[in-house]
Amino acid sequence: PATTNHLFIRTKNAAGHWSIANEKTFVVAITNDPAYVTAAGAPQNIIAAEYFINTDPGPGNGTAIAVTAATNISDLNTIINTSTLQPSTTNQLFIRTKNAEGHWSIANAKQFVVSITNDPAYSNAAPASLNIVQAEYFIDTDPGVGNATPVGITASGEISNAAATIHTSTLGNGQHHLFLRTKNAEGYWSISNVKMFITGTVVPLHLISFEASNKLKMVSLLWKTENEINTSSFSVERSEDGIHFYSIGSKAAYNTSGTHHYQFDDTQPLNGVSFYRLKQIDIDLSFSYSDILPIARTGADKGFAVSPNPAIDIISVVFTASNRQRNLRLLHSNGTLLKTIMVPAGSKNIQLNVAGYAKGIYMLSLEDGAIRTVQKLMKQ
Q: Taking Cα atoms as reference points, which of 223, 242, 202 lies closest to residue 280?
């Protein structure tokens, strides 16, 4: 009872990888403690305060801070004794308060660095333009200030976009933490900045194939991969115009070497032309996209489908399969031929720029031997 503790929560994804743990501090109340039934009046509810450094001696056993009973205490000055701490070390200061019922609050923490004993306040400081004189990094375990791997820098008051080679050859596969700190002209080291990263034998995922096909009441998407290392999942995205995509589902990755096959069925496909792509997401949340696949759900019996329609500039024309060469013609509504495009045998789609044409009604005509199919196009 009446102890300060830390609660950690983490999650695991479908690939079997655990997240970094999230932390929350809490205090265990005294067993069967009544809910403030004997509370003092609000004006005197905070009656005591104390602090401790690094290690909690238990509520009531910290160093006392003189306070005047009140419901809100701010701008309170106190002296913190750091004489027993080692110079140039990073420490944690904790402060908590007690109410009139005898219950202690959760401790608030603040990190600080102890400077060298009797150090003058920058009396021997270098000019501001040269105040940062050294930098170093370490991975996972701190060897102590000044003992980590040096990073070459030019003395300056501010350093940004500095490049350095980080050696990871001795690390095992998995999650690690990179720490970086700097030293000023007076010899004091900063608090370390930290960044998480993942190591492993990373071979870029190879998307061998990605195909879309019409089935009864659905569009079936099939893809095949190899070298899935550090791969988390695949998000299936769909678009009506080939530009603005949104996710319609996902598949967890196998995340192993070898060849893998996936299938995703869009059971609520759009009418007309749809566009599909894969978003390949890695464990570190980086991602890349596959090529875009267009597919037509209506107009297949007419030989082709057009999207968008009405159109402003670029249109996509998606064809049903044919082993013969065909011609696609763009005509004005009065019958004037404006453009002829040869469609190679086996071609599934082409793009046509109509931005240069005036607003109005046009006709697209697909000629397959003696068969001629016509669809209307509205230009905005």
A: 223
Residue 352, beta-bridge partner list: 315
Contact predicate 2/33, CB 8 Å: no
Which of helix, strand or coil describes residue 332? Answer: strand
Instruction: Note the pLDDT tens digit of each residue in 305-350.
Output: 787 878 888 888 887 666 778 888 888 876 788 888 888 887 777 8
Q: Is the pLDDT of residue 35 over 60?
A: no
* pLDDT for residue 261: 94
pLDDT 10s digits, 259-281: 999 999 999 888 777 788 999 98
CA-nearest of 303, 243, 301, 308 to 272 is: 308
Closest listed residue to residue 339, CA positions, set 299, 279, 379: 379
Q: Please determine, for residue 32, whether its predicted confidence score (pLDDT) is greater than 60.
A: no
Give residue 189's pLDDT.
Answer: 85
Output the DSSP codes for 23-76: EEEEEPPPTT--SSTTPPPGGG-EEEEEEEESS---TT-SEEE----BS---S-
What is the β-pairing status of strands 304-307 and 108-113? unpaired
Say how far apart CA 28 and CA 334 lie, in whole Å: 84
β-pairing verdict for 293-296 and 273-282 = antiparallel
Q: What are phi and psi of 186, to 5 degrees?
A: -90, 0
**Do the Cβ atoms of 340 and 328 come closer than 8 Å?**
yes
pTM of whole model > 0.90? no
> Which domains occur in the chain, in start order?
4-113 (no CATH), 128-199 (2.60.40), 206-296 (2.60.40.10), 300-379 (2.60.40.3080)
CA distance 213 to 220: 5
CA distance readout (Å), 116 to 26, 119, 121, 187, 299: 34, 5, 11, 9, 80
Q: Which long-range contacts (CB under 8 A, 24 or more apart) does 244-249 make?
A: 245/275, 245/277, 247/279
Question: What integer pLDDT is reported at residue 197 of this predicted model?
Answer: 73
Per DSSP, the three-state class of 129 is helix
Query: Tokens 């095949």 identify what position?
Result: 224
